[in-house]
Amino acid sequence: MTVDEKAVQQTIVTERFDLRPLRLSDSGLIEMYGSDERVARMTTSIPHPLPPGTTEAFVSRALAADSAEHVWAIDGTKAGGAELMGVISLQAMDRNQSEVVYWIAPAFWNTGLASDAVEALVGANPMSNANMFASVFQDNPASAKVLTHCGFEYLGDAESFCVARDTTVPTWTYTHKL
To answer: How many folded domains does the chain comprise?
Structure first.
């Protein structure tokens, strides 16, 4: 990826929300939601408790021109919702592939938001990938359901280290050919 590609990260528009690039002002809500143990335990990378500076470092990396990851805020303000309801990202991989990673704030769980956000991202395919991957912890069947609802197919079992749990956790891995 070149610097020019990162500079033009698009906003993905839906009726319910916009997936827009992160901005510095998102740090407060990201920290509030990310410090919730229920959120952190379902991600590989959010520590719990959340150390000072973690959120600012995450946002700075997301905004860096040389980042291989595109990060969007799920912004519901256009429909009278919250400015940040969760975060979704694409991490560039080799062979024209990317990995989808997302988390939703607990206040918006069980509302279809995760499915709608993943569906919008896959539909837009902003990196023009041939394939997208995603994985979820096996004790999070709701996220597995999101992926299968959005056209991802089960690929196999694996394990990932969860910083918040300080242990390796079994995962299900999914793929979506585009």
So the answer is: 1
